[in-house]
Inverse folding.
């Protein structure tokens, strides 16, 4: 491929910033979790691009581990969303302040 | 090269759609398009196994989980509605922060000499997909995963088990809310 590595890394940075903006801006916890998934994928793209550039399989392995941890994070995050919705009728992350003490 | 720019456009557009969509279901659809484009991009980077895993695990499992939760939450008496987003309050500091952070990232990328070219120093050669002893092939991936990186692999299994136990403990049949705090049924 004639695409330079910097293009992939720049694309990864752009996706990461879009995901970070989504986490900061949105109040819907589901959309926030999806924005976090976007950020995981940006990191994965950087891993795969660097693995391709250095011809080393370690990046692939780490991207695989990242996907697994992302699955665990999504499962637990969605379980927390379900609980919060079950005991209160709103899903707004600003209203969930039980643990504030 | 044209494929890369096409895919990059698709990825960025779908990512923006995910963040700005009105309803979470639309966000899920945008995320599906994003993951599909990223999987094709992984294929162009000769990461076959990760492309397939991206489709199966992300699009198949995680997005289905999101869809189930959306369906579960909005099947009640009313579709859950949240207040206005935080955009008016944090627009100026966030845009400043975003521009500075993105500019810094791109600056570092442009400065990094290792990002300029590719070094074909070590590893297996490139070749047609689907064959062993080729960089990024499934055979190579599996061999490395089960020899060199066996311990991280097992740690991943442990993390998944913890996640399963945690999800069952959180959202299982047992009510985590103490009876005192529970509202009328």
């Amino acid at each position: 491929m004639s695409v330079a590595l910097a293009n992939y890394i720049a694309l990864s940075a752009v996706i990461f910033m879009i995901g970070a903006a989504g986490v900061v801006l949105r109040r819907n916890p589901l959309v926030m979790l999806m924005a976090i998934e976007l950020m995981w994928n940006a990191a994965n793209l950087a891993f795969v691009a660097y693995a391709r550039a250095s011809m080393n399989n370690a990046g692939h392995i780490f991207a695989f581990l990242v996907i697994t941890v992302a699955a665990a994070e999504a499962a637990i995050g969605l379980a927390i969303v379900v609980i919060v919705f079950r005991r209160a009728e709103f899903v707004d992350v600003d209203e969930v302040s039980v643990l504030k003490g | 090269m044209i494929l890369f720019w096409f895919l990059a456009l698709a990825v960025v557009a779908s990512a923006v759609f995910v963040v700005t969509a009105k309803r979470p279901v639309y966000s899920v659809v945008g995320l599906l398009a994003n993951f599909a484009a990223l999987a094709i991009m992984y294929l162009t980077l000769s990461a076959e196994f990760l492309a397939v895993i991206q489709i199966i695990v992300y699009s198949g499992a995680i997005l289905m989980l999101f869809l189930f939760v959306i369906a579960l939450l909005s099947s009640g008496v009313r579709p859950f509605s949240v207040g206005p987003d935080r955009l008016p309050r944090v627009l100026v500091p966030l845009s400043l922060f975003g521009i500075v952070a993105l500019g810094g990232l791109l600056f570092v990328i442009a400065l990094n000499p290792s990002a300029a070219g590719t070094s074909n120093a070590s590893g297996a050669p490139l070749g047609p997909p689907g064959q062993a002893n080729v960089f990024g092939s499934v055979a190579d991936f599996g061999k490395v995963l089960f020899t060199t990186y066996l311990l991280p692999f097992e740690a991943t299994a442990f993390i998944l088990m913890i996640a399963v136990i945690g999800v069952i403990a959180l959202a299982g049949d047992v009510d985590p809310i103490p009876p005192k705090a529970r509202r009328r049924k």
Summary: Chain B touches chain A through 88 residues (CB under 8 Å). The mean pLDDT of chain B is 77.
